[in-house]
Amino acid sequence: MIKLSYRPEIDGLRAIAVLSVILYHIEFFFLDLKVLTGGFIGVDIFFVISGYLITSIIIKEINLNNKFSLLNFYERRIRRIFPALFITISISTVFAWLYLIPSSFLEFTKSIIASVLFISNYFFYFEGLIYNNDQSLLKPLLHTWSLSVEEQFYIFFPVLLIIINKFFKRNLLISFIIIFIISFFLSFYTTTHNANFSFFSTLSRVWEFLAGSLIAYYQIKNKKKYFDYHNLFTIFGLFLIFYSIIFFNEKTLHPSVNTLIPILGTCLIIFYSDKKNYVTKFLSNFLFIKIGLISYSLYLWHFPVFAIARNKENILSNFDKLELIIITVLLSLLSYIFVEKPFRNKNFISFKLVSFILSIFLVFFIILNTLSVKNNGFEDRLHVFLKIYEREKLEYSLKDENGICFDRIENFCNFNKSSSDTIIMIGDSHSAVLTKKLYKETLKQNVNFIPISQGTCVYLPKYKKVITKSKQEFRNCSLKSKNLIEKIIKDKSEAIIILSGNFKEHFYKNNRWSYLNESNLEPLEGFIKSIEKLLKNNNKVILLYPVPTPGFHVVRKLMSHVPKKEFNAHNFLLKNPLTFKMKDYYLKNQKIIDAFDDLKHKNLRKIISEKAFCNRNTKICKTHHGSKVYYRDENHLTVDGVEILSKNILLEINSFLD
């Protein structure tokens, strides 16, 4: 087995990489500005280091022994990766059991299987997660996506390298360069067409590993360096890394051409470092080396620690974050000392024993997931009154002969077409939760009902909604779909139009998406003008003001708020209500409320949603009445919440129909 000469500066690079990732996930703010917004590139630094070290080991072993043992290589990888990962998952499971609601726990157990099979990068992509949005930060094992990418590289790259070395030995460098170029352009193409898939995909990351491989190849083939400006190059490399960490953000197209900046920086440091080098001395300081040594454990532990804490508390104070950092460091030290080091030592634990221990864990994970699927995430952990709210997904409840009405981009549901009176309801998932109740009520009145509810899409004609990074148009909020909606409205010239949605997500700027249109009007202004146009064309409009939202996951909060042993949950909750402040609602929606208030027309009806859920005297909003819960999560209404709000909507519908 080949052992590489120890390079302390690489541990220093690992330290910078893991610290940048941790601080990025912690979401550290200074003067209300998020700092280290490019900390996610720490993962890319790890990829370059991995490519460099793995290629160095393989090529040196081939050169020395004229062969390479895949079994020995995979044994080292198993000893290095699996024990600490399995322990982290096992301990995380205990806290996930305590603080994750059943649906989240079910997803967690599925992600365990994906993680130990090293396919979690694709698992999380197909689950629809967007890296580092609010929902993704609640997934304890999301960070294992990068381990899966690494392991997929470790599985296939050695085999590929052996084949190339056997049949194309003289063209090994050219093969590396060709694979690098193909992967790089594939990465750029995929990111511009599907940024989320590109982020999680191994194929989009291979070139980052190959960057390290190219350095390893060159250093092995050319013992002597012919460059005199190593200090300048390494300083420039460190600058590129810190520039990326500080100035990259969620809008940065990544992985893509931009990613060349931190990759080049890492390569310059690995290639030009020597003992006299200033950057080498900086990276080789005692603290960086120690952090680098435990970097794997730090990476493993930081995400589940913070994710579970966010599931428990929702909003973390700076003091909470400091406590969690300390817990992460302590767990990482224990993991490194008592798990990583012993299991990597062949003289201490045989591979047969390692395999046996890991097999026991694997069987446990499989049984746990099987039982979790069978028992809906062990929903008996919930108080009985919460089960119905945890299960229901109202946006998917209304169907016609073609299936679910929600999230269609064409062939929208159209009930009772023969009626002369028509209601068209347009909005996002917050609108969709209302549709089944309104359909049932309008059916009684023999009214044509057309529900058009699309995820993350509200009524904004001629506005193109695009992903900020790639400028790719949202499939379920496309201009083509919007034009179809406009045609329906035009054909139903005197229809009642109900407009609703989680407007603050659409009308306030964010880093995830943006709205583009020819007039360059802000989305809120465009929405108001669209309403004015509807009213001018003799449509009757019912406008729902933003529904007050608690800002915390109500069912999850009630899970810990109501003691499981409490027999009468209704009385307990009447005495111990879970509420939020009206001022928080106004802070989030004031600009929208003011714009809606300014709208005036005889054919316009307004539903002031806060009246249904808030007390203007006490300035308090309620999330439930006893055991009747109004919110399923942070903002979507339950069937009981819909019941309250729909009464007001039906009154306004009747005022138009009478």
Describe it for me?
There is one protein chain. It contains 26 helices and 16 strands. The chain is an alpha/beta fold and 658 residues long. It folds into two domains: 8-380, no CATH class; 386-657, SGNH hydrolase (Rossmann fold), CATH 3.40.50.1110. The strands form six sheets. It has a five-stranded parallel beta sheet, sandwiched between helices. The chain has a three-stranded antiparallel beta sheet with strand order 11-14-13. A two-stranded antiparallel sheet has the order 1-2. Helix 1 crosses helix 13 (286-293), helix 3 packs parallel to helix 14 and helix 10 (230-247) runs antiparallel to helix 11 (260-272). The chain is globular and about 90 Å long. The model has no long low-confidence stretch (mean pLDDT 92).
Number of helices: 26
Number-wise, the strands total: 16
Characterize the overall form.
globular
Q: In terms of per-residue confidence, which ranges show pLDDT below 50 for 5 or more consecutive residues?
A: none
- Summed over residues and divided by their number, the pLDDT gives a mean of 92
How many domains make up the coordinates?
A: 2
Helical amount among residues, as a percent range? 55-70%
Distance between the termini: 86 Å
